[in-house]
Design a protein that fits this description.
Blueprint (H helix, E strand, L loop, with lengths): L18 H8 L2 H19 L4 H24 L22 H22 L4 H20 L7 H17 L9 H23 L5 H4 L11 H24 L6 H22 L7 H28 L1
Length: 307
């Protein structure tokens, strides 16, 4: 590694430090819960109802996702020390050793893949789980340190969890075009998410790090434009999903459609709000909340359909 990240190792733990916090950090629990919910979403769409099997699948995918995230921390421990957002993570600060973190990662990964293999028929779910592992830890994580093309396997990895849920349903399933639209939506959602995180980095951090970033070919203004463009495409994907009739409740469909129309305008307004230091935080929050609403509407619609 060349250059100097300009950081100071802080191995002294604060009095209020808890190891549970390090575990939740390693497993990226909030993102892992999002991904697990997306597998539940795919399962519910596939069988057109919500069951305890859907919940069980979400728990198994949560184990797999947490293991993949922990392995990512092990792989990125030298990469993370270059950035203020990540340099205080437990592996960088050596509160947890790579060996221990690797053991946790492998245990969670084997538990997740084993659960998919044992609890759900066919090789589809476990095969897609392995593909997600390969895309994220095998391709995306090492490739992002060398090429901007890493966004391709990274995006594919994020599109697979709803497909895992879809494939976990045995026998005949609903119209298969729906899952491809859902996968497209999840792929589009990740791009503005990545660009906003880039914008949140401190001035000069990305330029000082010996790794490729889109800031080397795009100005800050151009990246903001990309966020609005990809958010608009993300919203169009939601509208296409609704036009295909995948939400049966008229009220929920109108609610989600209205949010989809407002989303790009909201993001454009937030990114243009130059005087607010919190505009990027709000933008990321809005994009993520909208994805949560999208999945929630799809699941609630199936619950109400049964009633």
């Amino acid at each position: 590694m060349t250059g100097n990240p300009g950081w100071v190792l802080d191995q002294k733990l604060s009095p209020g430090h808890h190891w549970s916090g390090d575990f939740f950090e390693l497993t990226k629990i909030r993102l892992s819960l999002y991904i697990a919910l997306s597998s539940v979403f795919g399962h519910v769409l596939s069988q057109n109802r919500f069951t305890m099997d859907s919940l069980g699948l979400g728990g198994i995918v949560l184990l797999l996702t947490a293991g993949v995230a922990t392995m990512n921390h092990v792989q990125d421990r030298h990469f993370d020390l270059w950035f203020a957002r990540t340099r205080h993570r437990s592996l960088v600060q050596k509160r947890i050793s790579p060996l221990v973190a690797g053991f946790i990662a492998l245990s969670l990964i084997f538990a997740g893949l084993g659960g998919l293999f044992v609890c759900f028929s066919g090789l589809g779910p476990v095969g897609l789980g392995l593909l997600a592992l390969l895309c994220y830890n095998g391709f995306y994580t090492p490739l992002k340190k060398r090429s901007l093309g890493a966004i391709v396997p990274g995006g594919l990895c994020g599109m697979l969890p709803p497909a895992i849920g879809w494939m976990a349903v045995p026998g005949p399933v609903a119209d298969a075009s729906g899952i491809f639209i859902v996968m497209l939506i999840f792929g589009l959602w990740q791009i503005p998410h990545v660009f906003i995180i880039l914008l949140k980095q401190l001035p000069g951090e990305l330029e000082a790090a010996p790794y490729p970033f889109f800031t080397s070919i795009l100005s800050r203004k151009a990246i903001k434009c990309q966020v609005v463009i990809w958010t608009s495409l993300y919203s169009l994907g939601i509208l296409l999903f609704l036009l295909k009739g995948w939400v049966h409740s008229l009220g929920l469909s109108l609610f989600l459609g209205a949010l989809a129309l407002v989303l790009p305008l909201s993001i454009a307004a937030l990114l243009g709000w130059k005087r607010s230091p919190h505009s990027l935080v709000f933008s990321l929050l809005v994009i993520n909340l909208f994805m949560l609403f999208f999945m929630g509407v799809g699941i609630l619609d199936r619950i109400w359909l049964i009633k």
